[in-house]
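User: My instructor asked us to take a sequence, write out its structure as tokens, and then describe one feature of it. I'm not sure where to start. Here is the sequence I was given:
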Amino acid sequence: MTAPTSIADAFRAAAARRPSHPALVYLGERTSYQRLDALSDALAGALAARGVETGDRVVLYAPHCPQWVISWLALQKLGAVAVPVTHFYGPADLRYIARDSGAETAICTDTNFGHLDKVRAETPIRQVVVTGIADLLPAWKRGVGHLLDRIPSGRVRKGADVLDLRDLLRERRAAPERAVAGDALAELLYTGGTTGFPKGVPINHALFLESCAEQRRASLPVVPAGEEVILQGAPLYHILGQVVGLGGLLAGETVLLLPKNLLDAVFDHVERYRATTILGTPTLYRMMLEHDRVDQYRLGSLRFAFSGGDALPPETAARWRRLTGHPLHQGYGATETCGGVALSPGGAEVPEGAAGRVCAHQRVRVVDGDTLEPVAPGQPGELLVSSDHMVAAYWQKPEETARCFVEAEGRRWYRTGDVVRIDAAGWMFFQDRSVDVIKHKGYRVAASKVDNALQEHHAVVASCTIGVPDPAVGERIKSFVVTRTDVKGVNAEELIRWCRERLAPYEVPSYVEFRDMLPKSKVGKLLRRELRSEERRKAEGA
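Assistant: Let's start with the prediction itself. The structure tokens for your sequence are:
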């Protein structure tokens, strides 16, 4: 059997193989593969009738709901390019991404419509498709939700350029037959830029399918094919959330969607639907473990809990195993690599501290960050990544592309900016972000190592360590800490003493500052750069 070359072909194959199997579960309602295929066909046909062509960019601006998935699949069937945007973004970010992508169509929820409509005149967007998060639920459930004021809604102006998604589905148009090659663009995902503007990462069908297949292979030893029930713990607008959740749909598995990842709802869905798989950041797992009611739920069905987006503290991994009876699997990847570069396969004996084993479809080099010359085997250095279908440039960002992509050994390589070491068996050990390596008294101190030590303290919920410029020593080490609300009397001196017992003398923080919360990105990553900027502003104002 020939392997599918496009995302649409892969989904159609899954739908044909398992037509009655639940593809999505959302607020208690199951959507079968057959129905999801039919709905995405109908939307694809309606969008084609309104001028959406192969290669057109379409903004997808909505929280988790079946319509998000239906829209994304419809765009893949059209050969259009999805531009997923976090629903937390306001007008300024929307304006920038709409302009940069050149999108002429947007699909959004009624709660987001106001932001989008505010910037329409300043963007190429000529038509907007609007839906409510409960629009595809049964009428009785919508009625109860509105009666209890549980369904958020927003005001939507009327106009020929504003289309209702339900109306488009009712047209029941057939999806056009459009051949899509593996090297055609499937989507543009926007990620942070060094210039302050997000960078569009163009991902093609072949790379996406390859990454999804590799991710599923990692869980196969503990979750056999056809048995996976994925709780969508990471956002669908983020690449790691996509290769797990959307990748699960392409493999014929079941995905549990929550409009919001409220922890009690997460726990309830795991227990009720016997979820086998979840992806989240270390912060999410830490929050789950700290939750007051976590012991009231049965979470043992989670055979493949996967942590990505940041370094996983060993203490968090150990606590998760004690709670569930299963390991917390770690992986390493980036938007530019379309997810996993290294993954920890289920059932494997993972060396302590490893972020995963290098994936079969990825090529890696570990180099000196200044010269780009390879370091000695097993030694730490900056990670370069390449693959046959790789992202080779940012969307319309030649300066950022020149900074982050290089040629070596006749191949194109992406510079991750991360410091790793790789052993002879292919296990990758994450050392730190190169920009987060603190240069203290001539030593290179890994910020994540300091954070791991702090987070072993019973009172510490989260920490974020940075380097503060100091002419005398290069940088001083400063840690920002959030403590448990039910623990009193913990002070900076105690935490510094704690670190002295666990770290080399040059790794111990000079300062500890207590905070109620730490800055995080929309997907839960700690934003060290914001704390560094804050300290820099303090110094300049002194």
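For the description part of your assignment, you could build on this observation: The first strand starts at residue 22 and ends at 26. Try explaining in your own words what that tells you about the chain.
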